[in-house]
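for the writeup, i need someone to sanity check this before i put it in the appendix. the sequnce is what the collaborator sent (i think, or maybe the updated version? ugh). structure was predicted straight from it, no edits. if anything looks off just tell me and ill rerun, i have time this weekend
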Amino acid sequence: MAESADPGPQREAVIELLAVISYGEISAFERLAEDAALAPSLADKVALATMASSEFGKVAPLHDRIRALGGEPYAAIAPFREAVDEFHRHTAPADWYESLVKAYVGDRLAGDFYREIASVLDGETRDLVIGTVEKSAQAAFIVGRVRSAIEQDPTLGGRLALWARRLMGEALTQAQHVAAEHEALAELVAGPGFDVARLAEMFSLLTEQHRSRMAELGLEP
């Protein structure tokens, strides 16, 4: 039997999840476009502009799915804008390399989080979420640039490691605030009855993945 594309009683939470992912993609587009202006070479500028275009291209399918579930995309996004914008206000990069680390650590941390949640979604929404958070081309570019810079200036590694740890802390804090303000979404994340053990296991996994990502960048976890 084919898997239903209807999330059933989770509909409100799924719409909220798609909305916050959508605004994350819009924000990623804006940040990458701004970061392109800081790029040290034309090749880097074009690479980031291409990434920005890719992020923006992921927004329309998310909005289509929200509409298919009976929601209105911009109304669904509205309650999440302040939280996402606040995170970016608190984590404004000071230079090109901090912007690269933020794009890698911050966006992929969010991707890990959404990928974990996607495991409990209906098949159509799960595939959409996983496809949206996939950023392999972006990762390869950033890892190459950051590792090369650290090899040329080893002192840069210490500063970027501190920056990456700060991003992790800010992201987890903001995720907790969002969950506290959106009961349906929190239940989707933590399970019925707010399963604290499940939530702790998820955050432990996210932390381990973050450490692995730090190592990929050549940074001390």
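Residues 155-181 form the longest helix (27 residues). The mean pLDDT is 86.
thx in advance!!
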